[in-house]
Structures are given as C-alpha cells and as structure tokens.
Write a structure and sequence with these properties.
The protein is an alpha+beta fold. Helix content is 34%, strand content 23%. A hairpin with a 6-residue loop joins strand 20 and strand 21.
Length: 637
C-alpha cells in the first residue's frame, strides 16, 4: 500500500481550503450583489407581483375661446373596477352589480371569475355620482370606484364641426379634438395597492398614488360672442328657407384669425352617433367646393384695377343683356341688360357681360396668375383636417369661353375658406394671410403658454391703393347696388352678392342655386369679413342679395357692436326703395329731463330706468341711425 507523505496531505488540505474560501468568496459577492445591487429591482418585481393598479384618468385639456370662455370641458364620471381574486361570492356580487347598473348578470359574472389581476366593468363606465354612491353602499369586497371623466360641450351643437368629438376613452375622433389629441390627452395615473396570491390585501404595505398629468388647454381664435350671432342667424335661416345646407365664416382680415365658423345641418358632439356620418364628418366651410358665382368677381376686379385695365368712374360699358364669346351666348342675370353704365355701376349691378370685358382686357395668363396668387386652387393651410383645394382650369386649356365664365365666377370650383381668405386680402391692403383657428396651448397647472401661433403672411397680392379703391367699389355695391340688404345704418359696409347654379352630371340644375354674400366692415378699415352661402333655399327668389345679404348684414351689425367698433361717418347714402323703413338719427339726450324730451316730440319710444329726472346715459348712443319709432332707453340720475 502506497503511503502518502504528510507534506502531500498538507498541500491537499491547503488547496481544498483555498478552493473553499474562493467558492465562499464568490457566493458572498453574489449574495452582496443580489442584496445591494439587485435589491431594488427584485423588490420592485416582488411589489409588482403583489401590486394591483386602479387607473386614474388625466383631465383632458379644455378648449376655450379667445376670451377664455370654455366650449369643451370635462364632467367627472366614475368607473367601476373589480379585483376577481378578492371576490368572495361572484354570483351574489354579480347579481347586486347587475341590479344597480341595470346590466346583464351573466356578463358581469364572466368578468368576476376571470383569471386576471383587475377588470373594468363595461356597464360601469362613466356612471353618475349617484350610481357610484349606490355601489359603494353595497360594501362589495373586490369592487372599486375609480375617478374618470367624460367630455362635456356646454353649448351643445355650437361650433360642432370645428370642435369635433371624443370617444368613450376620451380619445379625439374628429375636428380639433382629433387634430390636437396628443396635446389635449395628458398622461394616466393610478392608485396602487398590494395583495397576496389569493388577492388578500397586505396590511403592512400602504397604498401608493401616482397622479395623472392633465392635458394642455387649447385656446382658439374664435370669439364666442360672434360665434353665437352666427349660430343664431343660421338657425333662423334654416327655419325660414329649409335649405339643403348653410355655411358661414367670420375672419379678422388683418391677421387671418377665424372669429366664427358654422354650418348646417349640425349635430351635438355629445350625441354624434345619433346623426349620419356624412353630417359630422364634413366641416363644410373648409371641405365643400362649388362654383362661387358673383362673389368671385371681386378677384377679377382687383386684378383689373391693379393692372390699370379699368377706370371705374371714367370707363363705360353697354350691356344689352348678353355677350357672345367663342360661339357661345353668355347672359346677364337681368333680362334686357343694364344698358349704358360706368364700370362702377357694372360692379354695383353685378353685370356679367361687364366682367367678361374685364377678363378679356386682362387675358387668361394674367387673370389666372391673380387667381392663384389669391390662393385659389390650393389649400389655405388652416389648422383643421379635411380641407379641400377646389378646381381651376389649366391655363393651356382655357379658351375664350372659359376665360369669360371664370371672370364672373362660373366654371371654377372653390372652397368657402379660400373665398374668405382671398377677399380679406383684397380689402386689408393687399396681404394674403393663412387662416388659423388655434391661438395657444396652455399648461393648466402653471398657466404657462407652451405654444403660440402668430399670423402668417403668405404674400402681397395687390397694392394698398388698389385695395382702397376696391373697398370703395364694394361699399358702393351695398349702398347703391345688389347688396343693399346688407346695409347697416351708421356703419360702412362693403360686400358682394353671389348666385351660382348647381351642376349635376355635367348639367346645370333648374331652380337650384347656391346663393351667397361676402361682406366686410367698416369699409374704410375692415375689422371683420363674413361669408355666408345658402344651398338651395326654398320658398323664395334664389338670389344672393335676397337671401344671403340680410343674414350677413345682421351678423356684421351685431358683431361690430360685440367688437366695440364705433359707428363711422362719411357713409355712402343708401339708394332708397319704396319699402325701406324711415331712419332717423338718435339725438343726444344726456343732460335733458324726461319732460324736455317729451316736449321735443322725437319719433322714438322713450324707456326710462332709474330714479331722478335727468338723463345721464342712453342706448343707442347719439348719432346712431334707427328706424322711426324704435325704443331708446335712458338712465336717470
């Protein structure tokens, strides 16, 4: 038997000792790493396996008008969640929940027995506070009420196509709600509690709250006072004419800000499912395209004035009621024509043959250059989805007839927003602005403006002098011509009528027109441009001056007062008609006594407020023209 020496034994023992120490050292390092290096991670994993999250939805950002008036906001709407493993008696719990929520017991039961950490009850989404209190009063284990909200539109159908709407999860689906969904949405939060594998709450671990981050508020360029006026007038027109549709847009011509926008038929964003998709899916002022009719003559006139092709006072034109161009006979709206007239009267009378003459003086290249410079045939770039581009002839396909019809607004297709932007440029001194409807994004927690839009000047299209001459001509249209129904006493208003036949299958329809009017005021320094078009009004003569001009006149009159624009002097006198009401200027009654006013025998109704005998304030103000017999309210000291 081989003997092992003591030295060898000691070496082997030393080796084993070293190996053991090394292994122990490695284990110690590993334990230390797990304890200190991975401790937080492993703890978090353990906590995650124990934790249950009840989500807290963020507050969706509000949408407000330029003055901070809320037009889309949120209403608190609690939601029911369940932790299936904490449910002690699924059958009884489902029966009680079903009775309270007026829901199917079977459907709720299926949720309660699911092998999941947390379940949301569909029938318990966005319920009322009363319902939430009823459920809490039941004292059901494993049933929780989480904070949630739903979108609320306090003005109903007001501005509906612009605002759009949200879905059940508060996600933007249409309009500004969709366009700015990411900014409005915010980030979710939650309440976290801890339970074991059987779903029992762990008593030694406190709940944790991760607060949601609310979305940004959206401030618009819209003025709710002007929007309300537009909505009112469109409601009245819809009731009076039963049209196929109506649109109206108001814009500040000095910077492109949209002050109001509406169309009919309309809908309530909170009940969008109650109307056909084609109603809520089309914002007509930016989407629809049609022949503009005579409102387009403003562009032809601007081009002719800028190019020096016409002198409105000195140049004359004879209108026999038609003009022959390229073998076609193009007729004036007035049978028999307007006879001999100055070109200012051509504009006042909206004489088609006269504008054919202007188009021919310009030539197709020059006319279409101005049309494109004014923004037609391309999107305006407004910050709303679904904008149309319209249709223009290609210049190389324009013959004598196409040139003639384009000059008076037939054979081309434009959108309402294009017309508003173009006419704003024509009357604001000649600068084409990009229309926009969102002004700012605001952090609701700090009030800090995180995004601000500023006016975008696209290009100069005509000179200031041409714009001034154009404003005078269009003011004359309202005072002396076809736009008389938009005339406002004491305010200088300019504008142009439009009456365009609708086409179907390549043919024009009989007695089916889009009638329109575009107006601006004050004519010497425009603060607002308003365009209104009525599609196929029933029970009336289908002319823009008859149907659309009065609507725009009322919108302008009330909007000017809402904007605190003072009455103007040097107004062009209106051409009187036999059925025009008698207008008188309101006298200055301040400082007079009621007895003195009565002795003057003013043709006005005096309505007094307050105590005393001396007038300290009056409404309307002195100098404002009103119909004879109108009420004047005086406030006594």
């Amino acid at each position: 038997m081989k003997r092992v020496s003591a030295v060898t034994v000691r070496k082997r023992l030393s080796f084993m000792l070293l190996a053991g120490l090394l292994i122990f050292f490695i284990i110690d390092i590993r334990l230390g790493y797990v304890q200190f290096g991975m401790g937080k991670e492993l703890t978090d994993l353990a906590r995650d396996s124990w934790s249950r999250n009840i989500p807290f939805e963020p507050e969706r950002g509000k949408i407000v008008d330029r003055n901070g008036v809320s037009i889309a906001e949120n209403k608190s709407a609690p939601t029911v969640y369940v932790i299936p493993r904490q449910i002690e008696d699924p059958a009884s719990t489902s029966e009680k929940l079903a009775a309270t929520l007026n829901a199917s017991k079977e459907n709720i039961y299926q949720r309660l027995v699911k092998k999941s950490s947390i379940e949301r009850i569909p029938e318990g989404r966005k319920i009322s506070f009363d319902k939430a209190r009823e459920i809490q009063a039941l004292g059901l284990k494993g049933v929780y009420i989480a904070e949630d909200s739903k979108r609320h539109y306090p003005f109903g159908s007001y501005l509906s196509h612009v605002l759009g709407f949200t879905g059940i999860d508060n996600q933007g689906l249409m309009g500004l709600e969709l366009y700015y969904d990411e900014e409005l949405s915010g980030e979710k939060g939650s309440v976290q509690f801890f339970s074991d594998a059987k779903g029992r709450r762990l008593p030694d671990m406190s709940d944790e709250f991760d607060p949601p981050v609310d979305g940004y508020d959206l401030k618009l360029t819209i003025d709710t006072k002007i929007q309300s006026i537009i909505e009112r007038e469109l409601d009245n027109a819809e009731a009076l004419y039963n049209p196929d549709g109506i649109i109206s847009v108001a814009m500040n011509p000095k910077n492109g800000e949209i002050l109001g926008m509406a169309s009919r038929p309309s809908f309530d964003p909170a009940d969008f499912r109650e109307v056909p998709q084609e109603i809520y899916n089309r914002n007509l002022p930016i989407w629809s395209t049609y022949e503009p009719g005579s409102t387009f003559k403003i562009i032809t006139l601007a081009a002719a004035l800028e190019e020096g092709k016409v002198d409105l006072e000195e140049d004359h034109f004879h209108d026999p009621g038609f003009v022959k161009v390229g073998g076609a006979t193009l007729r004036c709206w007035k049978k028999g024509g307007h006879g001999s007239q100055s070109f200012l009267e051509v504009v006042e009378n909206s004489c088609n043959p006269g504008f054919v003459e202007l188009g021919q003086r310009l030539g197709k290249e020059k006319l279409f250059q101005y049309i494109r410079n004014f923004g037609f045939g391309q999107k305006t770039g407004i910050d709303l989805a679904g904008e149309g581009t319209g249709i223009l002839f290609k210049v190389d396909q324009v013959g004598p007839v196409e040139l003639a019809t384009t000059a008076f607004g037939q054979g081309v297709s434009v959108t309402p927003i294009q017309q508003v932007a173009a006419v704003a440029a024509a009357v604001n001194g000649g600068t084409l602005y990009q229309p926009y409807i969102v002004k700012e994004l605001i952090d609701p927690s700090t009030g800090e403006v995180v995004m601000r839009k500023t006016p975008v000047e696209k290009r100069k299209v005509i000179s200031e002098s041409t714009s001034k001459e154009l404003r005078h001509a269009l003011e004359s249209v309202v005072a002396q011509g076809t736009g008389g129904n938009a005339f406002i006493e004491s305010y200088r208003v300019g504008g142009k009528t439009g009456t365009a036949q609708k086409a179907k299958d390549g043919k024009y329809l009989e007695n089916n027109h889009v009638v329109s009017f575009i107006g601006f005021a004050p004519a010497d320094d425009p603060e607002i441009v308003v365009y209104t078009a009525v599609d196929n009004p029933k029970g009336t003569v289908q002319f823009g001056g008859t149907v659309a001009a009065p609507i725009v006149g009322k919108i302008l009159e009330d909007s000017l007062r809402a904007l605190d624009v003072k009455p103007r002097e040097n107004q062009i006198e209106k051409e009187k008609k036999w059925n025009d009401p008698v207008m008188i200027s309101v006298p200055d009654l301040k400082g007079m006594t009621v007895k003195e006013i009565q002795q003057q025998m003013y043709n006005l109704q005096l309505k007094a407020s307050g105590e005393g005998t001396t007038v300290v304030q009056q409404s309307p103000e002195p100098g404002v023209k009103v119909e004879a017999g109108s009420p004047v309210r005086v406030y006594l000291k």
